[in-house]
Amino acid sequence: MALALTTAVAHATDVDTRALLARLSRPAPDTTTFVEVRYSGLLAEPLVASGRLQHRADGALVREILEPYRETTTLKGENVRLEREGSKPRSFSLDRAPELRGMLSSFGALLAGDLGLLERHFVVTTRGTEARWQIELIPMDEKLKRRLARIQVDGTLDSARCFTMSEPDGDASVMAIGVQGPAELPKPLARESLAAWCSTGAEP
Amino acid sequence: MTPAGKVLLFFAWAAVIAGLGWFVERNLVVGSDLRLFMPSPRTARERLVLEEIGEGPASRMLLIAISGTDPRAAAETSRALVKALRDSGEFRWVANGEGSLEDIPERLLAYRYLLSPTLDDARFDTAFLSEQLHERLRDMASPAAGFLEPLLPRDPTLELLKLAESWQPATQPQLLYDVWFDAAGTEALLVAESRAAGFEPNGQRAAADALRHAFEQARTDATLALETSGPGTFSVLMKERTQAEARRLGTVATIGMVVLLLAAYRSVPILVLGLMPLASAGLAGLAAVSATFGEVHGITLAFGFTLIGVAQDYPMHLFSHQHAGLQPRDNVRALWPTLATGVASTCVAYLAFLFSGVRGLAQLSVFTVAGLAVASLTTRYLLPPLVPDRGRDAAESALLGRLWNRIAGLPRPVWLGLAIGALCIAVLWLSPRPLWENSLGGLTPVPRPLIERDIALRRELGAPDIRYLLVIQGDDAQAVLAREVALDPQLAALAASGALAGFDHAGRYLPTREQQLRRQAALPDRSALQASLDAALRTTPFKAGVFAPFLDDVEQARSLPTLGPEDLAGTPLEARVGGLLLQRDGHWTGLVTITGLRDPAALERVAAATEGATLLDLKQASEDLVAHQRERILWCLAASAVLLVVVVFVALRDPARVRRVLAPMALTTLVVLGLLHGAGVSLNLFHLIALVLAAGLGLDYALFFERAADDPAEQRRTLHAVLVCSLSTLMVFALLALSSLPVLRSIGITVAAGVVSNFVLALLLTRPREERHS
Fold this sequence. Notes:
The complex is a heterodimer. Chain A is an alpha+beta fold. Chain A has one domain: outer membrane lipoprotein receptor (LolB), chain A. Chain A contains six helices and eleven strands. An eleven-stranded antiparallel sheet of chain A has the order 6-5-4-3-2-1-11-10-9-8-7, with helices on both faces. By secondary structure, chain B is an alpha+beta fold. Chain B has 31 helices and 13 strands. The two termini of chain B are about 40 Å apart. Classes of the chains: A alpha+beta, B alpha+beta. The interface of A and B includes residues 40, 69, 80, 96 and 97 of A.
């Protein structure tokens, strides 16, 4: 048992996390495309939306959905503002959505390449190789843990490929980064096949 | 009387005073509702105004700001404060912008379909449900998914969220950490509605203490500071400032009085005896008011003691006229007709206030009349046996003798008196400025920086206007609610045109039973809803059966009894609706509060065109009330002036003497009025009462000078008495005149000026002309 643990830790340190984060950091402003796939217990099939993620110079994060409808979420400071075509804008604070706060703090730390910041909120485990790595983040905050079980970031070399957020009730959303549209993802979008796509980098 | 008898009498009297003091202490209820000093209403509209001044939600509203270096700590404290204040029992309603979804009790959840306006123009058919479900799919793909998804199986149309949003104020501050913050994001903002009326300083003090206590418990950070504003905060502040200042001035005045009495009579027993009639008078006055009215207003108390301060003069006349060879009993017998005339006429003047229609003034009248009667009777019957029959004779004072001769030698041009009187009348008559101050706020003005802060907070919070209030009346709650609902489109149009920023009324929270029944009738039965839902679901990836709780709730809502105001107990709606929809002796009143009103005339037009609606301008209305009140008081005073002349005439029975006695007082009243007006002072109720006090003093001075006309020794003794009396009164009121608070200053200046003028004029005008030559 002790041996197994040591091996796991030794395995986990194959990749230098600090160096990896430094390579991943993207100074603002920065824009990337994404496709997000949402799996829910209420749904027989996942929801798919694609758009653009913008990290603005003022620190705000703007998540824009362009397909199949238009919606803009602006995350700035403690406020989340959700604007969707055809409906009234809605604002709420990060206190209402702890999972979003968790996602944001991990995202912010990754964009800044700041391991210290990441380790303040998560238990950080890195697996894989320099060429194909995986960072697992387990929240430390109890309140956040009730809403967010883990975040998994998969990537190759110096770019992140997938952000997978798993909730305790089994729901999850996967954000594929740098992808133009759902056509680039595996079909059908079963959870296992998308997970495999994220971790192996296999093109469909 | 034997020395032992004197001691016995003294202690018996002291014991009665102590006993009375104990009785008063046990039974006295001191009220502080300022409306006691407002007139009784004569019309339905006046009654409405009086009910709403201090009772309306806007005047109960406290604006609260929590500032500190860490906004997050301020937000946490704001949340904890809301909980603590809701539990404190001092507040009817507390809000900080937090969504109240969690506060809605289970039994009300199914009512969402009856309370929400969705069913007014939508049906739960396939098209509507399909559109809603697609919208929910988008929500599920949005960052809001985390907190929306758990609601969906039960509430796929998010009816609860719509309701909670519609219950938020029409214009609200920005949300930071889910609570209200100012635009700069540094201060957490809250509003609380106290149970106590706005102009009831004792209740407001209790609310302020509860708030302070809750804040100390709730604060998470030592740097946080609490700040409150609003009518309640101001009434507490001004009451306490007035009290503190009156107490400070009163202490100085008491010390001055003791020094003056010791200097005048050089005897400690005289000093103590001099206080006994006044103490008896004060306690008798309190007991009389307590017995008649059940409670004494704080203002009656403070002001009453000021007015019966004149009772301090009675023993002084006795002391100043006391000299070797004169039995105190004979002394008082000789003085009594004069003293009694003064007391009787002053009491007649104060009786006028009994019929003023103002409860506070009626209390003041009872207090003063009872006090003065007791003071004069104790001076007449209890004091003489205790007064040492030897002592300094004021007549032996060479200084007083020279002073008297100097005064006697002064020229007394009657024409000058007439000219001064005419001049004063001319000033009053010809000046274009209004003579009277009608604004109630002018008496205890709130410091400018606080007002500005209040305006700023009010704007940040979108708090309702405290001047204008729309009142809807009806026979029952449903009639009022229906009228409010009918007004909605017109008010919304005013809001759209910018005439006002927002409005609030009970109908926003509680629809009429008729509306609820209409919505209920629009709910489909279970099988129809199931069919529509199934059809809608076929266009979505939702799993079959996930919306079973929704079907259950709709089915339940179809058979719920409609909600009335009485069914809201224990719900977050209870406080909101309770504050805006009130039952008052057989009829119901709904209040529509207005935010950011820019065009009162437009609102007035809407109100005029609506049955049962009245737009109250509380400022204008209260000024009208003050003006009516004053008119009535002036008539009462005129009547009492006539009575006073009658009393003096009955006592003196000589038109020439009556003229000499009344002239200084009448001229003084004119002079003081002319001076005040000439100096740019607008007159208020307190000036009027002070003028009556000054007139009473003047009458006393003149009566005594007139009485002392013949004998040079008596003249010197009278001069001594009146000098001591007027100097002590002048000192007390000159101190009040130095006050920074207009209410104290107006009393102080009026009486101080009145004392000087009365003293001088009484000396010059009351002695018969021939006496100069004898």
